[in-house]
Structure formats: structure tokens, C-alpha cells
Design a protein that fits this description.
CATH architecture of the largest domain: 3-Layer(aba) Sandwich
Low-confidence stretches: none
Number of strands: 6
Mean pLDDT: 91
Distance between the termini: 11 Å
Helix content: 40-55%
Strand order of the largest sheet: 3-2-4-1-5-6
Largest sheet: 6 strands, parallel
Structural class: alpha/beta
CATH superfamily of the largest domain: P-loop containing nucleotide triphosphate hydrolases
Shape: globular
Number of helices: 13
Radius of gyration: 20 Å
Oligomer: single chain
């Protein structure tokens, strides 16, 4: 599918504002590729683009889903492909912007045909300890234990669920990726010290702007939405299990670790050209990005 450009990278790099400015200049529309920003509410906790940024260019798949609804890469892919088609019908370019690696890969590579989650089986698996889940996965599919993050309970549960529902090793099924959209774009990053400082400041600003009240007002959440970084820590704060200083520090650390994982993912999983924003002013980055976009889609 032509007319799609990707701007991906870790959290807090500044890709949202940069992408919006470029989209306005080339009359493009933006599709968010963020597993948590797709939910309504939690503007502070998920660091959604602010109102000024959203007003620069049309944005899609940001704040569109209820927090009670489960999301995954396949659901995102269907929504994104439909949105891309609608943008193209208006004669415009679609720019996919985000940091959720699997959502991006769902578009660039497609997805294997895997069974939907089974609520009853999922409930049974969720009663098991992480160690019990690991052992069962090892028994069913030893190869998966080399490919699945065994510290990530959600991914271990999903791999085991696939094995049980299909009666086949998950590792064999997940190698069959179908073609995706034409994957041209950039991987934006910053020098580590600068990125970590930006993350630390952003978390502090979240608290200044009222993220505690945002979480306090939360209703029932889906399993996906409950994984938002900072949600558990702020709930612990509200329950008196940690001080506000401990809470801020814990969220800063969790976000820095997430950014590190994002960097690793995009370096290994994509062939997008890097764009180090630490070396450029905002205008220089905007000009560079627009030139790359023109080279990729000048003949579309």
C-alpha cells in the first residue's frame, strides 16, 4: 500500500509535534500507533499529544476506544488499514506515528492467523503463577521459551493460550507473517542522557498537571488498558503503599526502561532510517524529515 510513511521511536523523543508539523506542510493525516493513547481519557498518564498539537493536522486512533475494551495488534491493524484507506480516498498521505513496536510491525509485516483470546481459558491461565506458566510453555513449546519474554506474564499467557487452542506450537505459527504495507519511514531517537532527562521531566509535569486525580477517577479497565505505565504505581500511592516521591521515581524508572526496550525493538525489527533529534533543532529535523518523506513518496 503506497502513501504511508512511518515515524516511530521511543517515548518522549518529541515525535508527535514533529510529525504534526510535517503533516501540516504536506497535507497529510496522522494515525497514532500507541497501545495506550488509543484509549479515551488518561491524557496525562499516556502522554497524549496536547490539544495544540492535535489541532495542527488531522489525527486518528487517538482517544477513540473505551478503557473497558481490550486491544491487540490484530484489532489495531484492522482499524489502521481502514483509516489508511479513508485517508487515501481523500487523496492524502497517511503518516503512522507511535512507539508500540508490535502495532507498527502489524502494519509493516502483517500478522499470522492466530486464534482470538478465549476468556475461559485465559481466566484459568491467569490463576497460575508465572513460574507455572513458564513450565507449561516449556512442556508444550520449548522453542517459544527462546522467543517469548519469559518475564512478561501477558506474553507467556498468550503463547501458552495459542498452543492450547490450536494444539500446535506457537513458535511455528508466529513465523508465518503475511505482507504488510510498504514500510518506509524514520526511526527517531535522542542521545540517552537527553532522552532520560526528558522522560524524568515529563513524569514530573504529569504530576503537576493532576495525573493522580486522573487515575483516581478511573473506572473498570480492560486487561490491555491496565498495563499503562504508572497506573499501578499511582494506585499504590493512593492506597498509601508509597510516598509521592517514591511514586514519581518509580514511574520515571519504568518509563526509562520502556524507552530502552523500544530502542532495542526498532533497531532490530525495522529498516527505518535513524534520525537523531539531539543533533538537530526542531526546524532542521522538520526539514530533514520532509525531505526523506519526499524521496519516499515523491512519485506516488
Amino acid at each position: 500500500m503506497r502513501g504511508v510513511f512511518f515515524i516511530v521511536g521511543p517515548t518522549a523523543t518529541g515525535k508527535s509535534k514533529l510529525a504534526a508539523d510535517v503533516a501540516r506542510e504536506v497535507d497529510a493525516e496522522i494515525i497514532g500507533a500507541d497501545a495506550f493513547q488509543i484509549y479515551r481519557g488518561f491524557a496525562l498518564l499516556t502522554a497524549k499529544p496536547n490539544a495544540a498539537t492535535l489541532a495542527i493536522a488531522p489525527h486518528h486512533l487517538i482517544g477513540t476506544k473505551s478503557i473497558s475494551e481490550g486491544m491487540n495488534a490484530e484489532k489495531f491493524r484492522k482499524l489502521a488499514l481502514q483509516t489508511i484507506s479513508e485517508i487515501h480516498s481523500r487523496g492524502k498521505l497517511a503518516i503512522v506515528v507511535g512507539g508500540s513496536g508490535l502495532y507498527v510491525k502489524a502494519l509493516t509485516h502483517g500478522l499470522p492467523s492466530l486464534p482470538e483470546a478465549d476468556p475461559h481459558l485465559r481466566a484459568k491461565l491467569n490463576k497460575l503463577s508465572l513460574e507455572e506458566l513458564r513450565q507449561r510453555l516449556l512442556d508444550f513449546d520449548p522453542e517459544s521459551t527462546c522467543k517469548v519474554d519469559l518475564k512478561n506474564r501477558r506474553r507467556v499467557v498468550r503463547a501458552l493460550e495459542i498452543c492450547l487452542l490450536t494444539e500446535k506450537p506457537a513458535s511455528q505459527q508466529q513465523t508465518k507473517w503475511s505482507p504488510g504495507v510498504r514500510s518506509e519511514g524514520v526511526f527517531v531517537l535522542r542521545d540517552r542522557d537527553e532522552l532520560y532527562e526528558r522522560i524524568n521531566r515529563r513524569v514530573e509535569t504529569m504530576f503537576d498537571l493532576g495525573v493522580i486525580e486522573e487515575v483516581r477517577a478511573t473506572g473498570a479497565l480492560s486487561e490491555t488498558a491496565s498495563k499503562m505505565i504508572g497506573l499501578r504505581e499511582i494506585r499504590d500511592l493512593l492506597n498509601g503503599k508509597m510516598s509521592i516521591l517514591q511514586c514519581v521515581a518509580a514511574i520515571q524508572q519504568a518509563t526509562r526502561r520502556y524507552a530502552k526496550r523500544q530502542l532495542t525493538w526498532f533497531r532490530r525489527q525495522t529498516n527505518f532510517q535513524p534520525l537523531n533529534l539531539s543533533l538537530l533543532t526542531h526546524n532542521e529535523a522538520r526539514i530533514s524529515l520532509r525531505a526523506r518523506l519526499a524521496r519516499a513518496h515523491g512519485n506516488d
